[in-house]
Design goal:
The protein contains 15 helices and 25 strands. By secondary structure, the protein is α/β, with parallel strands linked by helices. The strands form seven sheets. It has a seven-stranded mixed sheet with strand order 15-18-19-14-13-21-22, with helices on both faces. Strands 10-9-8-11-12-24 form a six-stranded mixed sheet, sandwiched between helices.
């Protein structure tokens, strides 16, 4: 059965427009086209940026209550059309329909939180009289929007990660131009539709679709763009920082997330959480569980239980509500994961389960005995593969956890609070989950990492701090003038 291919427009400064050229968006499960989308040129990207700058500069007053009203309407629209959003996410991406529905719920919450944070964008008074000779000075600082935000988003959360860019930008009073992933632009365009329906002023949002090589550099380097917000791989992130110059940059660049399981942990709870954390969204998740270090007394039982639970997962049609794992984003990515696993096996690793590819599908895979020099030990696999290793104690587990160039999130399972606090103190990560896998996040928390995992923090309040500047106001009082 062939799916009807629909022609989709992109949003350029509040107007739905075509482009001279188009490209196809395909369902990765069967590689069938589901939509044709505008292939924007540099000219259209420049127009979007200039229109955004113009809209921002010509809007002398955009009251907080109006921004709140728009964001609340968007959240309500998303909830009303939740199944349409979910079907779109599942059709263009890798997520199962159940995972897609979960993402829609989160994305609506992200927009709702943005509305709430808009009213909390406050400043503080400053005690100028702490400085001798400044007894007659009083003042404060407040935050003001920077202008135009440039956002580049990945394929793995094609709706919620776009919401994490647009929501804070609008809440803070900025205009924003979004370049979504070329393989999953439909969810971003659907969110743009919600903002149009909610009455967002023209020019404050553009979603420009096309090749990152063609239009991405213009978004990064254009002088009107004040902040770059990027979610993606570290290599692309490093290139962006080199080109961005003195712009403010916020980046989430992935990880190679560790989880530690100590002998006093609840075995079944740890297994259940780690299986979900390793294989949800086909492992295409920046905080997904990739390395598990198990204290040797529990190792054998943990491994057996983990493998057994993994083999219960249902791989298949992502639109089937009984499916746990669908395809990867494309066959090329599945082939890359296959190559990484084969390289690990060639240096001594054992495949405990999985290790099979069929087109874009790659079976959930558990490896043991992986060499520290293997690529899969050091880099982000971004696929349904997890490494399990025995360690003698917590110190060894922490040392091995830190022995990579990433540090986004980690997890530890233990009943001992002292062990938990040892991990909290010594693990070099941006977030640590106690008795949870690394794959836990709420959208209101500060989210980001150390080392090559990124720059700055996302999470609505924290993104808004990046998307605003502080202005100090000081009054020198002249009492003799009274």
């Amino acid at each position: 059965m062939h799916t009807k291919v629909k022609a989709v427009k992109m949003l350029l400064a509040g107007k739905w427009v075509h482009a001279e050229d188009t490209f196809e968006v395909c369902n990765p499960q069967n590689n069938q086209p589901i939509a044709t989308v505008p292939l924007a040129s540099k000219k259209e990207m420049i127009t979007a940026i200039e229109k955004a700058d113009e809209a921002f500069r010509n809007t002398e007053v955009w009251p907080t209550h109006e921004r709140i009203k728009v964001l609340n309407k968007v959240a309500a629209y998303m909830k009303e059309h939740a199944e349409t959003f979910a079907q779109t996410i599942a059709s263009e991406g890798s997520k199962t329909i159940n995972e897609a529905r979960g993402e829609v719920k989160r994305a609506a919450q992200t927009i709702q939180i943005s509305a709430e944070e808009a009213r909390r964008l406050n400043g503080e008074t400053i005690n100028f009289d702490q400085n001798e000779g400044s007894e007659n000075r009083v003042g404060y600082h407040y935050r003001f929007p920077v202008g135009v935000i440039g956002a580049i988003t990945p394929f793995n959360d094609p709706l919620n990660l776009v919401a994490h860019k647009i929501g804070p930008a609008i809440a803070a009073g900025n205009a924003i131009v979004v370049k979504p992933a070329s393989v999953t632009p439909l969810s971003a365009l659907l969110l743009a539709e919600a903002f149009v329906e909610a009455g967002l002023p023209e020019g404050f949002l553009s979603v420009i679709t096309g090749s990152g090589r063609e239009i991405g550099e213009e978004l990064v380097t254009h002088p009107a763009v004040q902040v770059i917000s990027f979610t993606g791989g570290p290599n692309a992130g490093e290139k962006i920082t080199q080109k961005a110059g003195t712009k403010k940059v916020s980046m989430e660049l992935g990880s190679n997330s560790p989880v530690i399981v100590l002998k006093d942990a609840d075995l079944h709870d740890a297994v259940q959480s780690c299986v979900s954390g390793a294989f949800s969204a086909v492992g295409q998740n920046c905080i997904g569980v990739q390395r598990i270090y198990v204290e040797e007394e529990l190792y054998s039982s943990f491994l057996d239980t983990f493998v057994s639970r993994t083999e219960e997962l249902n791989v298949g049609d992502k639109m089937d509500e009984l499916t746990d794992i669908g395809p990867m984003i494309n066959e090329t990515e599945a082939e890359r994961v296959e190559e990484w696993v084969e390289e690990a096996v060639s240096t001594g690793a054992k495949v405990e389960t999985g290790g099979k590819r069929s087109g874009a599908f790659y079976s959930p895979t558990v490896l043991t005995g992986v060499a520290e020099t293997a690529k899969i030990s050091k880099e982000e696999i971004f696929g349904p593969v997890v490494l399990i290793e025995s360690v003698s104690d917590l110190r060894e587990a922490v040392q091995k956890s830190n022995n990579v160039d990433y540090g986004l999130q980690a997890g530890i399972f233990t009943a001992d609070i002292n062990h938990a606090f040892y991990a909290i103190k010594h693990m070099d990560v941006g977030g640590i989950m106690i008795n949870d896998s690394s794959d836990y996040r709420i959208d209101a928390m500060p989210f980001g990492g150390t080392k090559r995992s990124g720059i700055g923090r996302e999470g609505i309040q924290y993104a808004m701090n990046t998307m605003t500047e502080q202005k100090v106001v000081c009054f020198r009082l002249q009492e003799n003038m009274l």
